[in-house]
Amino acid sequence: MATGAAAGPNDALMNIPVFRPEPSTIVTFDLQPTLTGTFLELRPLRAEDFDALFAAASDPLVWEQHPEADRHKPDVFRRYFEGAMESRGAFAIVERKTGTIIGSSRYWAYDADRSEIEIGWTFLERAYWGGSYNRELKTLMLDHAFQFVDRVLFRVGENNLRSQRGLLKIGARLLRTEPRPSPGALDPNTLVFAIERPGT
Predict the structure, then answer these.
(1) pTM of the predicted model, to two decimals?
(2) Which of 141, 147, 31 is nearest to 90 (CA)?
């Protein structure tokens, strides 16, 4: 009969793997970074930017196809600006060459569970429509967003054909059509477009 020390009550636990959780890898979406490109700098919108941003927004043709077509008026634009400040995700779009504010955009409705966020409320002075400026604006915001989410959404008025064409040019696809909640709006419906993170 073999002899030796009797097995103690804790000896059986020696070979049980112990779970040690990894340090947290949760990353919070930074809604207002400063994003810098060749032509543009996007920085957090500030209260003192109102006059400069309104100067960029005061051209009625900027809003011609927008559901809120009178946003070039001071009182209407004031509501837009206040909403931008309250969102904590709005940017002043600055032309780097001149230091002039030429428009605004914002991140909105971040949904971590669905891994998506919206980009919207975007406008640029007409002199910067199309071409390099608009393309760089979208690239800067999408590249930043895709560090945190798998999908970016854009909401566009049904009659805003110019914005729809612009989204299609950068690879967005029409996801769904939703009724606009505001009764009497110029556009009865909102089109929701999506761009997926490459590789998803």
Answers:
(1) 0.82
(2) 31
